Structures are given as C-alpha cells and as structure tokens.
Amino acid sequence: MKFPDIHCNYCGKWLGEFSLEIFTTGYRNYLTNGKSRHFCNDDCHEKYKAQFEIIYKGEKMYKVGDEMYVPYIGCHYYFKTAENCYQRMQQKHLCYFP
Ligand SMILES: [Zn+2]
Q1: In degrees to the nearest 10, what's the CA dihedral of 49, 55, 60, 61?
Q2: Which of 28, 41, 62, 79 lies at a CB distance of 3.0 to 4.6 Å from 84, suitable for a disulfide?
C-alpha cells in the first residue's frame, strides 16, 4: 500500500510519504479552518505566512482569502473586514495573541 506524499506547503519539497512519524515529528502548523499543513522548517513557514501579511492601522494581521482576515495564522476564526479584525485585536484582555 502506498501512502500519500507529503510536500512542503511553501516550496513544494517532498518531505516523505505520509506516516505517523512525519505526522508527529515533521514541521507543521495549523492554518485557518483547522487544516494542518506541513513545512520543511520554520523558515518556509515564515515565508509562507509573509505572503498573507498586511498592516492595518499599525497592527499586523493576515488576509488569508476574500473577506477573510485573521489576527494570526492558525486562528480558528476570521473576520470579514480588516476593521473588524483590528477592533477585535484591541480587546487585548479577551485573548492572547502569540
Ligand atoms: Zn519548504
């Protein structure tokens, strides 16, 4: 039986066949919608994130799709406008931004 190939989500490098080992030890991070993506290393992950980075009123946030703004990559909710996202980010006492 052949397992699916795992590629870096940024540069496309082949990381190996899907296995429990890659799943537990491989570099990965969660994106929006709870989807797990694999990357070679932190460098590729940072470059991947930078593609979505925007600055709105001095706050760094990410535009991950049409009408999808998140305060950080891996966030499990999103906002339809940058303004809404910004307003939420001002409520620092409500949640922690890594
Ligand atoms: Zn890579």
Answers
A1: -60
A2: 79
